[in-house]
Amino acid sequence: MEHTPPKLRVLLVDDQPLFRRALATLISAQFDMTVVGEGENGRDALDKVRALQPDLVVMDVNMPGASGVDGVNAIRAAGFTMPIVMLTVSEDDDDLFESIKAGANGYLLKNVRPEQLFEDLRGVMHGEAPIAPAVASKLLDALRTGGLPTRGARSAAAAPQDSVLTRREAEILQLVAAGMSNKEIASELTITEGTVKNHVHNSLEKLHLTNRVQAAAYAVRQGYATQEPPQG
């Protein structure tokens, strides 16, 4: 008998019941996803995460009572590490930057095509960091000018890059900053995808970062994104 892999368990948090229910129907219709719960603000998000232990949280940004940024902060402060993707109409710089600094793993706009949303949600479970094209340029501009500080007191800039990362980790970090997926990096460097994932994980641990977006911020500020890949 063929083994069926478990479905991706998704928590939806949005203050608009009609949109939330429609999105839940679309997600649950996917062969590999199911919506296990719904919330209406950031306070609900933490309660639902505690009760349901979802694999992934999809959350709006601007909600009454407690915003999506509040929800991300609360979830991370409680020690939960599952990916969180913001799904919003807001293209506001502050909403974008504060979401990423709080520990969100992606930032998408509600005008995204359903098929693209599903692919992005699958990707974030493999370490990708989906960012809507309409706001990606804002993020990159801010990173290049140092406008998005890393989370926590011990920033990535606090340690000399040469003594913190190995040459291979620095090389992979440069490709992360270029927006490449683990699969694309593996192909580029002729190594396995699992090896890439391990290097990315080790880099995040060494630099005290929480996700690939913050790793890209570090790479840009340290100059990796404009350097030639290290040789060797």
Can you give a write-up of this model?
This protein has 232 residues and is an alpha/beta fold. The model is unreliable at 149-163 and 226-232 (pLDDT under 50). The radius of gyration is 18 Å and the shape is globular. Strands 2-1-3-4-5 form a 5-stranded parallel sheet, sandwiched between helices. Helix content is 50%, strand content 11%. The protein has helices spanning 17-28, 42-52, 68-77, 93-102, 114-124, 133-144, 161-164, 167-177, 182-189, 193-207, 212-222; strands spanning 8-13, 33-39, 56-59, 84-88, 106-109. It has 2 domains: 8-143, 3-Layer(aba) Sandwich (Rossmann fold); 156-226, Winged helix-like DNA-binding domain superfamily/Winged helix DNA-binding domain (Arc Repressor Mutant, subunit A). Helix 3 (68-77) links the parallel strand 3 and strand 4 (84-88).
Compute the CA-based radius of gyration. Answer: 18 Å
Order of helices and strands: EHEHEHEHEHHHHHHH
Under the CATH scheme, the architecture of the largest domain is 3-Layer(aba) Sandwich
Q: What share of the residues lie within helices?
A: 40-55%
Task: Identify the CATH class of the largest domain.
Answer: Alpha Beta
Q: Give the strand content.
A: 5-15%
Low-confidence stretches: 149-163, 226-232
Question: Main sheet, how many strands, which sense, barrel?
Answer: 5 strands, parallel
Distance between the termini: 47 Å
CATH-defined topology of the largest domain: Rossmann fold
Helical stretch tally:
11
* Biggest sheet, spatial arrangement of strands: 2-1-3-4-5
What name goes with the CATH superfamily of the largest domain?
A: Response regulator
Gross morphology: globular
Q: Work out the number of β strands.
A: 5
> Structural class, from secondary structure content?
alpha/beta
Quickly count the domains: 2
